[in-house]
Amino acid sequence: MLKLAVFLSLIWALTLLYGEMFSFWVPFLSCSWPHPPSSSSMSDGVDHQRDYVKIAVLTDPQLMDRTSLHLAPKSFALEAAQFYTYLYMRRAFLSSILPSKPDIILFLGDYFDGGPFLSDEEWQESWSRFKHIFDIDMLEQTTNIKLYYLAGNHDIGYAAFHSRMPEVIKRYEKAFGARNYQFTAGKVDFITIDAQTLDGHPQNNLTPATWEFVKNVSKHLSSNPRVLLTHIPLYRPDQTACGSYRSSSIINQRINRAAQDNEILYQNYITEKGTNDLLDSIKPALILSGHDHDQCTVIHKSKYGSVKEHTLGTISWQQGNLFPSYMLLSASNLILPNGSMPEEAISTKVCFLPVQLYIYIWYILLFVMTLLIAVLWPTNGVLFPHYLDGFLRNVRGLISSSFSGGGKKLKSEDEIYEYEEIWDAEGSMHLIKKTFKVSSTCSSDSASVERGNAIMRSVARKQETDTSNPADVTLLIGSDTAVKALPRTNKSKTKMVIRRLVRTLSIISIIAAFNIPLYMMLLFKDWIDK
């Protein structure tokens, strides 16, 4: 029993180590920074990291709150869901993204689930959790990593909310900064816009402000390629293919407007007019977006040529996507040679995180298998090799007798049988039958008694056929073949069930005693601040 418990404990320990720690190392080990075509790394095969700026891009963490999952605020179910969701994202950030040593981390919006509907106290609580999950204070104080944020609809709402709740915009800007701005990384300009205001009513102050920013960008002449950053993806016709990375069904355009002022309450994509105006004004070489929670790569047509848009999947495993992900983007530090295409300064790679649901399903299956093994495992250990050896010897005997032509001898006068009495823990007697040959010169009387064991043929037959004995007697013939002489009593069956239950509980207790502390250590080593 102890060997079995130790073996199962080791299986559980390896499973927990992989599910709670090693699986988050895999993206870092398997997903490396892409090299822009313009970098010298592409020509000589050497990774010249100074040739490009490394940017990690992630989106839609959507920290759960009282508006999530239709669960009561502060309920155990909601708290548990929040903890394991946050723990997953923190592990992904600390074990998969940060070890890649990015120069810039870019968030594409939707940091909270019910941002516009939260009170100031609830919003601050969510903001504190966001900073803890992504170690914002540590990054700002101890590293040279730059952080850039993009507003999402779950952070500030759509245009219909802005006129009724202007305080939502103010508290967002106080924590995350401006909603419309640009920055430069290497020789690439990044244009960040508040997509939630693009299709708003012109009389809304926020919508004209966003388009004024776009107009100013278009007037500024720059030789650097541009990347357009928008939380809401750009317009595309219905049923437009999204590429092989997408795991969910394609979402078509949907716009809901308020009845009183016709302002937008919800939209999947920017309108077709807004999309064309953006493409013509900014002339991007690449577009990055979020909002959809799943991967989508499309090509837009503008009067300046084709432009690729990458819609990134969520980093959370609780937002409807089984395959969370992030992106590694390399922006060239080198000036493009004459005649080069702007997109040659930019290279991207999508990296997928562990599938948390599959890990939990494996935990459940392993638990069921552990219970079955603990209950059904033979009491006297692993006897399968022993039984197999006896079976093979019997098969060989049958084959040899089949080819001998004389058939199998039922009884040999040169064989005698020796029976040895064995008593088990229940008080039942077992007769072990042993067969051996004697020399034909020996007399039958001298073989009647040997070393105190009963070998009289008549006595043996009597013991084999005597059914008046109340003891539970099992006769083992040959090597391992068991023939039950008498049915076990109800009392012995009850004892057997009790023994198996006690053994099962003992095995489970040993496994739990070793692995529960390991699991708790793995949980909190990533949750506590470093």
UniProtKB/TrEMBL annotation:
Secretion signal span: none
Transmembrane residue ranges: 357-377, 501-524
Gene3D superfamilies the UniProt entry points to: 3.60.21.10
Major subcellular location class: membrane
Keyword Transmembrane: yes
Superkingdom, taxonomy of origin: Eukaryota
Protein name: Cell division control protein
Gene source species: Solanum tuberosum (Potato)
Native organism taxonomy: Eukaryota, Viridiplantae, Streptophyta, Embryophyta, Tracheophyta
